[in-house]
Amino acid sequence: MILQPITEFINQHSYPEFKLKAVLFDMDGVLFDSMPAHAEAWVRAIRKIGLPFTHYEAYMHEGRTGTGTINGIFQREWGRSATSEEEKAIYTHKSKEFRELSRTIPMPFAGELLNKLKNKGLDIILVTGSGQASLLDSLEVYYPGIFCQEKMVTAFDVKYGKPNPEPYLMGLQKAGVKPWEAVVVENAPLGVEAAKGAGIFTVAINTGILEDEVLVDAGANIVLPGMQELYNEWDILF
């Protein structure tokens, strides 16, 4: 059962082999249990301007840049993109709400998994749609010696963001590896879609409120309920 997804993945893409050299991690919902606060902050910010928005939608939008999220809602409700002034006002409000709501909570077993991969000599890359400085700054506090600025892709680095494959293609470049030499660990359907578009084997960690089927439909090769399960099964999987 474990080997079948990898074999299918290789055959589907006509890759020469699967030889793991790098692991690309999303941040919110994977390394930090931050999505409940993000979702509530987005709900408050969007509803303040009189538009309907739910926590479920926030999870479905997870992975987009702030600009992408705002413009997606504006296009749906008003048939236009937000102005730069509107974008700034909404994202400023969202960030304020997030700072007031959030507590930095590392995802259980994320540290153990990161240290295991580092000890195996694997390259570890951060690929996040977030621009929240508070969480980015927390990486070194909670996961010391794992991440470095040169091996991060954030909202500040990309033009398009997830679900466009650009962030994960950039992650491959930073690691200096081919798609069949990497694995993505994601929790969001748009992030899974981006990783699939980049041609990378993707493990979805369902730490949120979405159904497993949403992640499978987005293109996840494997879905697990949490980081502990991925830690326990890593050596079997890879």
Structure description:
With 238 residues, the chain is an alpha/beta fold. It has two domains: 3-34 and 107-237, HAD superfamily/HAD-like (Rossmann fold), CATH 3.40.50; 35-101, DNA polymerase, domain 1, CATH 1.10.150. 50% of the residues lie in helices and 10% in strands. It is built from eleven helices and six strands. A six-stranded parallel β-sheet has the order 3-2-1-4-5-6. The longest helix has 18 residues, at 84-101. The chain is globular, with a radius of gyration of 17 Å. The mean pLDDT is 93.
Text of the CATH class of the largest domain: Alpha Beta
Structural class: alpha/beta
Number of domains: 2
Q: In angstroms, what separates the terminal alpha carbons?
A: 13 Å
CATH superfamily of the largest domain: HAD superfamily/HAD-like
Number of helices: 11
- Measured as a percent range, the helix fraction is 40-55%
Residue windows where pLDDT falls under 50 for at least 5 positions: none
Could you please say which CATH topology of the largest domain applies here?
A: Rossmann fold
**CATH architecture type of the largest domain:** 3-Layer(aba) Sandwich
Based on CA atoms alone, the radius of gyration comes out at 17 Å
The residue-averaged pLDDT reads 93
Order of helices and strands: HEHHHHHEHEHEHEHEH
Q: Tally of extended strands?
A: 6
Strand content: 5-15%
Query: Which outline best applies?
Result: globular
The largest beta-sheet arranges its strands as 3-2-1-4-5-6
Largest sheet: 6 strands, parallel
